[in-house]
Automatic annotation (TrEMBL):
EC nos: 3.1.3.3
Keyword Amino-acid biosynthesis: yes
Protein name as annotated: Phosphoserine phosphatase
Catalytic activity, reaction form: O-phospho-D-serine + H2O = D-serine + phosphate; O-phospho-L-serine + H2O = L-serine + phosphate
Names of required cofactors: Mg(2+)
Family classification: Belongs to the HAD-like hydrolase superfamily. SerB family.
GO MF terms held by the record: L-phosphoserine phosphatase activity; magnesium ion binding
Catalytic center residues: D7 (nucleophile), D9 (proton donor)
Gene Ontology biological process terms in this record: L-serine biosynthetic process
Keywords linked to the UniProt accession: Amino-acid biosynthesis, Hydrolase, Magnesium, Metal-binding, Serine biosynthesis
SUPFAM superfamilies reported for this sequence: HAD-like
Pathway(s) where this gene product acts: Amino-acid biosynthesis; L-serine biosynthesis; L-serine from 3-phospho-D-glycerate: step 3/3
CC per GO annotation: cytoplasm
Length: 206
């Protein structure tokens, strides 16, 4: 058995989930600017996540679910999942984003499990609060080690794919580290870089 771990936003999905939410409220430009700086490693991930989610206060959770059902998957997402499964990989999604987005997408793609954060809502309305195990810059690294221990999979049999600074911590625990249309900070830590929006390119590497 081998392990493949994918980031979600701008990796499995073509865009940033929180930007789609912010657009609904008219805050997209502000949120995009914070997201860009966080993914480039210029801001603490936890602080930037809390700041961005606070701007979502008042958004109906029903609208969150509606948006999440129509998020655009990255070109080649379905094919790379199928191709890696044929090669003996367990496929996991780690996201500093939200379960409301990762759960339906991963179910549709046939991904084995997803780990992400939860948007807090009261009476069907977002409160602007967020919780979960993927809120910190080192969360993905911590989780991948736990999964490797649980599944008995070594670093040499682990592949990771991401695009931003919060993927750095999981890159430390994999033999194949793929920077996908990534920020410079992640490209420097990668063993492979893919610069076209087509996840099928990964199948040429493995």
């Amino acid at each position: 058995m081998k392990l493949a771990v994918f980031d979600f936003d701008s990796t499995l999905m073509d865009g940033e989930t929180i930007d789609f939410f912010a657009e609904e409220l008219g805050f997209k430009d502000e949120v995009v600017a914070i997201t860009e700086r966080a993914m480039a490693g210029e801001l603490d991930f936890y602080a930037s996540l809390v700041e961005r989610v606070a701007l979502l206060k008042g958004l109906p959770y029903e609208k969150v679910e509606e948006i999440c059902k129509t998020l655009p998957m990255m070109n080649g997402a379905q094919e790379v999942v199928s191709g890696l499964k044929e090669r003996g990989y367990k496929i996991i999604c780690f996201s500093g984003g939200f379960r409301s987005a990762t759960e339906p997408a991963c179910k549709a793609l046939g991904i084995d499990a997803d780990f992400s954060n939860f948007l807090h809502a009261e009476n069907g309305i977002l409160t602007g609060a967020v919780g979960g195990e993927m809120m910190y810059s080192d969360a993905k690294g911590d989780m991948i080690v736990r999964l490797q221990n649980l599944l008995g999979i070594s670093e040499k049999d682990t592949l990771v794919v991401g695009d931003g600074a919060n993927d750095l911590s999981m890159f430390k625990h994999a033999a194949i580290k793929i920077a996908f249309c990534a920020k410079p900070v992640l490209r420097e830590a990668a063993t492979h870089c893919i610069d076209v929006k087509d996840l099928r390119e990964i199948l040429k590497i493995v």
